[in-house]
Structure prediction request, 138 residues.
Amino acid sequence: MAVVLIAEDDEDIALILTRLLSRASNTVLRAADGVAALDLARKHRPDVVLTDLGMPRMDGLDLTRAIRAHADLADTPIVMLSGHLHPGDTEPVAAGVCVILLKPCPNDTLRSVVQDLADRGPHEHHASACPVYHPVSA
Prediction:
């Protein structure tokens, strides 16, 4: 069972993601913005972070950079789930995202990616060292 931190400002999407990942036997933590997510990450050290791109106070890219800069969290796998990215966008990879999923994302794909990253565990996350990076769209 993995601990998954969801950073998502849309309450409906956060609820759906929480249910989906909880039903897959994960412990789910939720934050409505990047600042709250970083605080939860520092306190709980999740196995996987699932973040939206556009959020108030701190967006998903800044959250990713903050996690990568934190000594105890730097190797945490991060998935970015967004409807505002396009295939081939390189900024999330440069920030240290492992996997980009484009909304809407099939439930099975999301569960599988989170499980694969949880199974893999902590690892380096620059573009050349994170072989699990693969943009996926519906």
Q: What stands out?
A: The chain has a mean pLDDT of 89. The domain at 3-79+99-120 is CATH 3.40.50.2300 (Rossmann fold).
